[in-house]
TrEMBL record:
Protein name: Uncharacterized protein
Top-level taxonomic group: Bacteria
Length: 192
């Protein structure tokens, strides 16, 4: 059962994105398509993310996705479940953690790092299996997975040591990423 507040938040984010008029949005994902994505990648969408994708599947953000200097992915195409690009985008948060662990980084809250690099990676994999799975929203922006959850901050995850909050929730994130400001202050509002 999905949470009504999560569904409302996802629908608000979808309306906000549609109203911006800069994103090509296809028909929303069906319950069967959402279930297929969850099965394929081993997570369950959060309620707001599920409602957002059911309202419409964004695929191209003009001025963002097709920019020649684009250094990251665009919108995940949840209908192309066999895509290597989608697999890379889904796996990115864990892959970047493991890459940094392999290079010698060790999270402070994990206690002492095992001396053997292979053991360190094994322990990291084990610990990562216990934390919320991150699901791509757009580019390197992620929401935690989990049915019955919603309203989480959208995180921009470039590296384990380069994670920032990109929006307090999905609806706020849409405005921040695509420059839909809530302020009407001339000039200054263009830089919010």
């Amino acid at each position: 059962m999905t949470d009504a507040a999560g569904t409302a938040l996802g629908m608000a984010a979808a309306r906000r994105l549609r109203n911006l008029g800069i994103v090509d949005i296809r028909p929303g994902l069906t319950a069967a398509e959402l279930a297929a994505a969850e099965e394929r990648f081993g997570f369950v969408f959060a309620d707001d993310h599920r409602a957002f994708l059911a309202a419409g599947l964004p695929l191209l953000a003009r001025g963002h996705c097709e920019h020649p200097d684009r250094a990251s992915w665009g919108w995940p195409d949840w209908r192309d479940l066999g895509s290597e690009e989608l697999r890379s985008q889904v796996d990115w948060p864990v892959d970047t953690v493991l890459e940094e662990i392999g290079a010698g980084h060790w999270p402070h809250g994990w206690g002492s790092r095992p001396a053997d690099p292979a053991e360190a990676l094994d322990e990291a994999r084990s610990r990562l299996a216990e934390v919320p799975r991150m699901v791509p929203v757009y580019a390197h922006r992620y929401l935690p997975a989990g049915r019955g959850t919603s309203g989480h901050a959208v995180l921009s995850i470039h590296r384990l040591t380069d994670i920032i909050v990109y929006g307090a929730n999905l609806a706020e994130y849409i405005g921040r990423e695509f420059h839909d400001t809530w302020t009407a202050v001339p000039f200054w509002g263009d830089y919010v």
